[in-house]
Amino acid sequence: MKYRAIIFDLDGVICSTDEYHYAAWKQLAKAIGVTDFSRADSELQRGVSRMESLEIILRKSDRHFTDEEKVALAEQKNQIYKSMLATMSPKDLSESVRSTLNALKERGLKLAIGSSSKNTSFILERLGLGDFFDAVADGNMISRGKPDPEVFLKAAELLHLEPRECLVVEDAHAGIQAALAGGFDAAGVGGAASYSGTTYPLTSISDLVAIAL
Ligand code: BG6
Ligand code: MG
Description:
Elements: E1 5-8, H1 18-31, H2 39-44, H3 50-58, H4 67-85, H5 95-106, E2 110-114, H6 120-126, E3 135-137, H7 150-159, E4 166-170, H8 173-181, E5 185-188, E6 200-201, H9 207-212
C-alpha cells in the first residue's frame, strides 16, 4: 500500500458544515454592525481557527474590541453555530463519504481526523462516527492553527506513524499548506483540488480508494 493512514479534515471534507459556519458568522457580524460580510470573506475562514475567523470579520469593523470582548464574540458565534449543529444526524453523512471510509478501513488503512474545530467530537457524535476513527486530533489539542502543520503532526503522532506514511485530505488552502509544511502528501477536494502543491486533485472523495492502495 502506498500509505498506511489517511488523515481527514472534518469541515468541508467529512461533512458540509460550511453553510452553518457562514450563517452563524453572518448573524454575529450583523450584531456588531458589519453588514457586508460575504461568501468571499467566508472562504477566507475555511480551515483557520475560530479566533482567526473572527479577526476576518473584525477587519471590516471600525470598532475596537478588547481581547475579552473578542472571546465573548467567538463564544456567541459558537452558541449560534452549535444550535444549528444540533439538527445534524447520521443522515447528514453523504453516501460517498460513508462508502469511501468503509472501503478504506476494510483495506486495512488507519483513518484519522485532523481538524481545527473545537467542535470535532460533537460533530462526529452527531454523524454517528463517534467511535469510527483510529485517532482524532482537533482544535482543542493545538496551539497553532492551519496553515501550521501542528494538528496533522498530532494526528500522525497519535497513529504512531511518520508524515510520509499518511495522506491528508483537505478542502482548504490553509489545510493543503499545513499538510505540505508537515511533510505529508495532500489530496484536495472542492476548491483545494486546484491549489498549487496539492498532490492529488480529487473529483470525488471516492477517488481516494484507488490513490491510497
Ligand atoms: C475549521 C473550519 O474546520 O474549523 C473553520 O473550516 C473554523 O471555518 C474552524 O473556523 C474552527 O471551528 P470551530 O468549530 O472550533 O469554531
Ligand atoms: Mg475544511
